[in-house]
Amino acid sequence: MTAATVVSTDNFAPRERAPVWREWVWKHFGGLQSDLYGDTDFDGHMAAGQAGDVILTKLEANRHRVVRTADMARASDTGYFKIVAPMQGRAGVEQMGRRAWVSPGAWTIYDTTGSYAVDNPERVEHLIVMVPKAQLIERGLALENLMARHVGGASGISRVALTTMRSTYQELPNMSAAAARGAGELIAQLVRLSLIELSGQETAVTQREALKDRIRAYVAGRLRDPALNIEQIATALNCSKRHLHNAFAGEEETLASYILHLRLEACIRELQQNGPQASPITDIALSWGFNNLSHFSRVFRDHTGLSPSAFRQSPLLRTVVQPLQH
């Protein structure tokens, strides 16, 4: 087995931990930007090893978010499908207009050759598994439709895959190189079977996902419209408000909070722009559908921990190229 890589912020002064963590995340995951929700206190730990070509990383850290832009993805040398399987806390993965929230006992998958974002809104302990794309290609399987889906893990082949990923990571130190390589190949096979099963499930769940995709596409195109609301979406998509709410049943967010989240993240991106061309805070809020500035300030503080003006003035946050999109 390849020698394990272990890093920890414990050996650094508190003020150095956030920038050191960002650098580690960038290097280990092949170009990945991170931010800390505006927090100043942070600690994080990573331990990684390889099972053949499959990379397994155990990550434990305070709340944080990561994003990979299209430019970052293009600059990467190797393409992977990346799995996040929480052991503590939860993760929200967004890619291709979809978002899946997963908690312990479940997992989801996304493609590192495209842009994506992962939200960890509380302290987390995750197993992150990176499988080379070539190992998951299956004729007739539209993998792009399965990214950022809730794969499962409570039963069936997805549970077998999850158990195998966890046990492989745990036992890697005791495996020979040949055994580790075989375990990596087994992980790839089980993940592929899980995705094949997910692709073939013609159930109400997949119909709900299809409606959710339509909702997200509609919202993305009209996010700046302050009149955007549940009634407008229901009319445009020719369905009832009940169907809209049902599409988001089981999610961490309601449809209304999803829209709010998108607008806040759009404002965050613009607030990170500095210089003479930077727009005033009021103009940014109004341009993204907020017509009540006191409400905007309140929800912005709830989301980031800072007021809009304090966020813009923070030297630490100005180093973040682009925040999460939701």
Can you tell me the residue ranges where pLDDT is under 50 for at least 5 consecutive residues? 318-326
Question: Between the first and last Cα atoms, what is the distance in angstroms?
Answer: 37 Å
Radius of gyration: 20 Å
Strand content: 15-25%
Round the mean pLDDT to the nearest integer and report it. Answer: 87
Structural class: alpha+beta
Describe this structure in words.
There is one protein chain. With 326 residues, the protein is α+β, with helices and mostly antiparallel strands. It has helices at 14-28, 70-75, 156-171, 177-199, 204-221, 230-237, 241-247, 255-271, 281-287, 293-304, 308-313, 315-318; strands spanning 5-8, 33-35, 44-51, 54-61, 64-68, 80-88, 91-95, 98-102, 107-111, 116-120, 124-132, 150-152. Helices cover 43% and strands 21% of the residues. It folds into 2 domains: 5-199, Jelly Rolls (Sandwich); 204-318, Arc Repressor Mutant, subunit A (Orthogonal Bundle). The longest helix is centred in the middle third of the chain and has 23 residues, at 177-199. Mean pLDDT is 87; it is low at 318-326.
Summarize the structure.
It contains 12 helices and 12 strands.
Sum up the structure in keywords.
326 residues, alpha+beta, Jelly Rolls, 2 domains, seven-stranded antiparallel β-sheet, disordered C terminus
Map the helices and strands.
Blueprint: E1 5-8, H1 14-28, E2 33-35, E3 44-51, E4 54-61, E5 64-68, H2 70-75, E6 80-88, E7 91-95, E8 98-102, E9 107-111, E10 116-120, E11 124-132, E12 150-152, H3 156-171, H4 177-199, H5 204-221, H6 230-237, H7 241-247, H8 255-271, H9 281-287, H10 293-304, H11 308-313, H12 315-318
Antiparallel strand pairs: 1-3, 2-5, 3-4, 4-11, 5-10, 6-9, 6-11, 7-8, 7-10, 9-12
Helix pairs in contact: 3-4
